[in-house]
């Protein structure tokens, strides 16, 4: 079911029998992105009337209603018999859903800003413009002392494609659209964002890639999307295309990307995510002349911007209202 915001929501009463209305809810900060101290004050400020537990080893967790996770914590779910809601603190929930201990009957929600992440949109714009204006070529020519002026296109002459149109991807796509790029999206199900041509389903992937000169991956990792960017799909792009990955490293077959770059079929790539992070120092991505390597820095998670979303879902849980940004476990996001 979709709420008025267009985000996926879920009726709590459909997922467990009656919301427990307590004077004070117990919230567990189970794991965080970065030091826990960054999170404690913003969450307490957003939930001043709730009981926030932060010492996962020493605290009694038997009455915890809501647990907040950036990543899985082995053994903790067995200590949470009263748990009613799990909230993921990261943009992706793939690692949380992959936890074999994750309770099957407890709803999982994300805590991202409902308006998307402006920092990621700016980051995508930066790298699209770098490839659009062929900046790596000019940087290399400066290093070589070469003065060369190739053809320059306007944004309206460049076809950009984005894989995924979720909470993170949509603001990126609309920003690029508004600058003038010819935008298209590829999604699992139909998407009707104004001014952005949509291709959906497996059968439409080849047509989407064939029209895309700069490809941006913002997909979640699922069984269907793992290794989706491989020799076969790279070959569906026009020769000379560029690739930007801010999804997950598991989407890309590393050796196939290097082969496509080495043969000249792909012009360049910007990578922000990797199968193993930090990226091992011996990995060939580090020294490849056609790869811009970024250390997973598309955004810096700001607890103060996430805490209000957590507080809203805690309020909804107590009131028995639909939970915002509920994860579809079958779809994997």
Summarize the structure.
This protein has 333 residues and is an alpha/beta fold. Helices cover 27% and strands 17% of the residues.
Overview of the molecule:
With 333 residues, the protein is α/β, with parallel strands linked by helices. It has 2 domains: 9-114 and 301-324, 3-Layer(aba) Sandwich (Rossmann fold), CATH 3.40.50; 118-293, Rossmann fold, CATH 3.40.50. The protein is 27% helix and 17% strand. The chain is built from 10 helices and 14 strands. A 7-stranded parallel sheet has the order 9-8-7-10-11-12-13. A 5-stranded parallel sheet has the order 3-2-4-5-6, with helices on one face. Strands 1-14 form a two-stranded antiparallel sheet. Helix 2 crosses helix 10 and helix 4 (118-132) packs across helix 6 (169-179). The longest helix has 17 residues, at 303-319.
Beta fraction of the residues?
Answer: 15-25%
* Main sheet: strand order: 9-8-7-10-11-12-13
The total of beta strands comes to 14
Oligomer: single chain
Structural class of the secondary elements? alpha/beta
Radius of gyration: 22 Å
CATH architecture term of the largest domain: 3-Layer(aba) Sandwich
The 3D shape can be described as: elongated
What is the terminal-to-terminal distance? 15 Å
How many independent structural domains? 2
Mean pLDDT level: 92
What ranges have pLDDT less than 50 throughout 5 or more consecutive residues? 1-21
Element pattern in H and E:
EHEHEEEHEHHEHEEHEHEHEEHE
Reported by name, the CATH topology of the largest domain is Rossmann fold
Keywords:
alpha/beta; five-stranded parallel beta sheet; Rossmann fold; seven-stranded parallel beta sheet; 333 residues; 27% helix; 2 domains; disordered N terminus
């Amino acid at each position: 079911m979709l709420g008025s915001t267009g985000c996926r929501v879920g009726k709590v009463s459909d997922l467990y029998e009656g919301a427990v209305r307590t004077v004070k809810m117990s919230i567990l900060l189970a794991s965080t992105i970065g030091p826990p101290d960054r999170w404690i004050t913003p969450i307490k400020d957003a939930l001043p009337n709730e009981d926030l537990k932060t010492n996962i080893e020493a605290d009694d967790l038997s009455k915890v209603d809501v647990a907040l996770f950036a990543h899985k914590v082995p053994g903790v779910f067995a200590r949470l018999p009263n748990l009613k809601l799990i909230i993921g603190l990261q943009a992706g929930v793939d690692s949380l859903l992959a936890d074999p201990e994750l309770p099957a009957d407890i709803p999982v929600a994300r805590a991202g800003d409902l308006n998307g992440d402006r920092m990621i949109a700016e980051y995508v714009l930066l790298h699209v413009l770098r490839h659009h204006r062929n900046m790596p070529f000019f940087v290399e020519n400066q290093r070589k002392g070469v003065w060369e002026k190739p053809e320059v296109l306007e944004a309206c002459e460049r076809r950009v494609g984005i894989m995924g149109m979720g909470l993170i991807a949509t603001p990126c796509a609309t920003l690029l659209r508004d600058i003038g790029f010819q935008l298209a999206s590829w999604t699992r199900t139909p998407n009707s964002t104004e001014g952005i041509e949509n291709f959906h389903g497996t059968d439409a992937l080849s047509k989407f890639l064939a029209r895309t000169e700069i490809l941006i991956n913002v997909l979640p990792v699922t069984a269907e999307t793992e290794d989706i960017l491989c020799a076969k799909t790279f070959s569906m792009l026009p020769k000379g295309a560029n690739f930007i990955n801010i999804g997950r490293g598991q989407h890309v077959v590393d050796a196939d990307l290097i082969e496509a770059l080495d043969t000249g079929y792909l012009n360049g790539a910007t990578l922000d995510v990797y199968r193993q992070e930090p990226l091992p120092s011996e990995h060939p991505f580090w020294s490849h002349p056609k790869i811009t390597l970024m250390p997973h820095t598309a955004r810096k998670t700001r607890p103060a911007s996430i805490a209000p979303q957590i507080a809203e879902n805690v309020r909804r849980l107590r009131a028995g209202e639909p939970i915002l940004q509920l994860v579809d476990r079958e779809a994997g996001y």
